[in-house]
Amino acid sequence: MKKERKCFRVIPRWLCHLLLSVKIVLVSVSFSFAQQNTDRVNLDMKNASLSEVFDEIKRQTKLSFMFSNDDVKHVQRKDYVIKNATLDAALKQCLEGTGLEYELTSNQVVIIRKAAVKAEKIERVTLSGVVKDQKGETLPGVTVMIKGTTLGGTTDIDGKYALTVPLSKDMVLVFSFVRMEPQEVASKGQS
Fold first, then answer.
1. Residues 6+ positions from 29 with CB-CB distance below 8 Å
2. How many C-beta neighbours within 10 Å does residue 17 have?
3. Of 111, 107, 105, 101, nearest to 51 (Cα)?
4. CB neighbour list of residue 162: distance below 8 Å, 6 or more residues apart
5. Distance of CA 103 to CAs 64, 137, 191, Å?
6. How far apart are CA 173 and CA 171, in angstroms?
7. What is the tens place of the pLDDT at every residue in 72-111?
8. Is the pLDDT assigned to residue 190 strictly greater than 90?
9. Which residues, other chains included, contact 69 with Cβ-Cβ below 8 Å and sequence gap of 6+?
10. Does the predicted model carry a pTM greater than 0.85?
11. Which DSSP category does 68 fall into?
């Protein structure tokens, strides 16, 4: 006698089968991801290249590796001894001092170059003001842009604007509005 799965009467039978199959797929995906995070790596390699190390880790974890040969060929051969380490710890140890880092996706390790130069802290300035027409009335909806860039904004209902932008010596603001000629104003170090 076959055991029959029971499903609520308000849910059609085909939907029950679909939900069951989705549940199976989700369980297998989460199992494979969990398995990657618990894989242990053991290396005892003498005078090995980094690509040879990746091949050995691939053999042990069943993960595939993506990297540019140009990125790894400059790394000198050396001895790698890693005992019962997590994948994360093993990769960090192997890539230490190489100028390379890795990103782990669902079943792939991607080796990339580290950002060559960290972005320096850029000094910023806030430019603010009120835009008025010739009669002294405020103008809402005026576009205020930094000339030569895509940085800018618009004035609010009271004609006020505030832009926080990187500091520049020769900054020029361009004010434009429908049916009016654009106006350019040099900031001259003012805020």
1. 106
2. 12
3. 111
4. 126, 127, 128, 153
5. 12, 56, 42
6. 7
7. 888 899 999 989 999 889 999 989 988 888 888 767 888 8
8. no
9. 51
10. no
11. -
pLDDT in tens, 9-35: 555 666 555 555 554 444 444 344 444
Tokens representing 119 are 């972005």
* Angle between helix 87-95 and 50-61 (nearest 10): 180
For the stretch 121-133, what's the b/e string if a residue is b when 16 or more beta carbons lie within 10 angstroms of its beta carbon?
eeeeeebebebee
**Residue 39: phi, psi to the nearest 5?**
-60, 140
Name the residue with tokens 């900054």: 171
Q: What are phi and psi of 12, to 5 degrees?
A: -60, 150
Q: How far is residue 83's CA from residue 62's CA, in Å, rounded to a whole number?
A: 18
Is 45 exposed, middle or buried (CB count within 10 Å of its CB: 0-12, 13-18, 19+)?
A: middle
Instruction: State the amino acid at position 82 in one-letter form.
Output: I
Contact residues for 167 (Cβ-Cβ < 8 A; gap 6+) = 122, 123, 124, 125
In whole angstroms, give the CA distance from residue 86 to residue 76.
24
DSSP state of 112: E
